[in-house]
Amino acid sequence: MSTSEVEQLTARIAEVASHALRDATTMPPDVYTSESLLALELQRIFAAEWICVGRVEEISDSGDYFTIDVAGEPLIVVRSGGQVRVFPNVCRHKWGRLAEGSGNVGRIVCPYHAWTYSLDGELIRTRYMDGAEGFCPADHNLPEVRSAVWAGFIYVNLDDAAPPLEQCRAELQGRIGNYHMEDMRRICGAEEIWSTNWKLLVENFTDFYHVFHTHRDTIDRYTPTEMIDLQDGGAGYSFGTARVIKDAMPESPFEPHHPDLDASQREAFAMIGVFPAQMLALAPDRVFYMCLEPLGVDKVRTKWGVACYDHDIDAETANGIEALYQQLNGEDRPRVEGIQKGVRSRFAGQGRLSAYENMNWEFTRYLSRRLSG
Ligand code: FES
Ligand SMILES: [Fe+2]
User: Fold this and answer.
1) Which of 1, 193, 259, 263 pairs with 333 at a CA distance of 20 to 30 A?
2) Would the pLDDT of 1 be above 60?
3) pLDDT tens across 148-178, in order?
């Protein structure tokens, strides 16, 4: 697709975004299949915004690390003492891949020629470099990538000019800070690759409209559409809440929770799209989250998990919670993967939105702001 076609697509997104919710439509289907638009999204969104890469509990001890890609950049996220640090997963010698998966290390040793870095990225050992005239290890430390923690989530930003995370999350923090997600602990989760465009997965997670039918055997039983409170989002996020019928919930609901929650928060879920690619289903006692990494126009890695207040949760309860979210994902996944096939159809047009898709409409407006101009 040529530059002018990307311009055409962003213009069409802007056109959709210009409508009020009452006469809003979906974005054009090509938005989910265009390689050039994905390249623009990686550049203007994933390489420029704060991207969630996981929870701090994943690296609770010094030396704990995991690897992840952001906007195609391979990274290592590591705990060095009390600090979370993020480095390129690329050796300063000859681009060796420094680490795989997750684990615990005392130092970072390149598997190729064993250049060795401290957990702070300092090059502390090299072998057989005596003949390299003027070689100074300090000139070859790993550069640190910007990272910050909000509410127990780790974020990375590849853009040194981007505003601080704290500033970007300030408004949302004012709205949900009293849930104290930083006090929750991750109890389960997984990484999966779904065959769909990343935007369809954001839209699915924050779509109140699909709950009554897609999840008719699960969450609709205790969060019927009539109990959803549509709300406006704000700077960098979409937001809505759904009150629950506690008696219809499968487990002892919403306990334990933080005493700072107000009465309405204790009786409801909050659904939040933290733009661009993190989603939260926030209950009084837990958060179900997803962080996305686009792998192609029709492939996305989702890193999902559940974090709870109950730090001493027993294995059986944790397994039950994991099974519930596996079930919900199992209800969503074939549908969003099916949509990815649908957007390629010659018959695919732009559908009208229900008012219950307001968070999708806000996402379109966010995309338009980031991609236009
Ligand atoms: S590439 Fe890492 S030590 Fe050579
Ligand atoms: Fe769903």
Assistant:
1) 1
2) no
3) 999 999 999 999 999 999 999 999 999 999 9
Tell me the domains of the chain and their CATH numbers: 3-45+170-371 (3.90.380.10), 52-154 (2.102.10.10)
Protein residue with least CA distance to atom 4, ligand 1: 113
**DSSP structure class, residue 256:** S
**Given the structure tokens 């989910």, which residue do they identify?**
32
Percent of the chain with pLDDT over 90: 90
Dump pLDDT digits (tens) for 89-103. 999 999 999 999 999
Between the CA of residue 251 and those of 147, 183, 188, 260, what are the distances in Å? 37, 22, 17, 22
Q: Is the CB of residue 251 less than 8 Å from the CB of residue 306?
A: no
CA of 153 to the centre of ligand 2 (A): 22
Residue type, 253: P
26 vs 276: CA distance, rounded Å: 17
ipTM of the complex: 0.97
d(CA 207, CA 104): 38
The answer to whether the CB of 125 is under 6 A from ligand 1 is: no
CA dihedral 353, 233, 18, 299 (to 10 degrees): -60
Which residues neighbour ligand 2 (ion) by CB within 5 Å?
332
Residues for the chain: how many in total?
A: 373
